[in-house]
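User: Hey, quick favor. My workstation is busy. Could you predict this chain's structure for me?
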Amino acid sequence: MTDQVVHHGACLCGAVRFTVQGNLPAASACHCTMCRKHTGHYEAGVDVPRAAVAMTGADQLTWYQSSAKVRRGFCSVCGSSMFFDPLERDWIGINMGAFDGATHTRLALHIFVADKGDYYDITDGLPQNQQ
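Assistant: No problem, here it is.
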């Protein structure tokens, strides 16, 4: 038996579920236009090795090819925005809101803040990358 940490998550309706083996890295918040439009606000997520992720209900995922190198996954039943998938990388991004319970990680960085919405301020004191 292993003492390794396992994180569980799902979409809103539960049709898509996942587990991540191991501790989660620090999260980042992306304020780019595509992430804002995909999530309805900015996207907060963690990037984890593909090999650490197991999924059930993957047939309920719909993938939107948002650029030549990236697709975004959402539940085809309830519409929950869940994944950021850079196809040529060995990791996948998982939206923080899709995790069940405590994640034991924190937001560490804001990116693409030059594109952020004008209706909110970033006041948490974390580093901000313009792009």
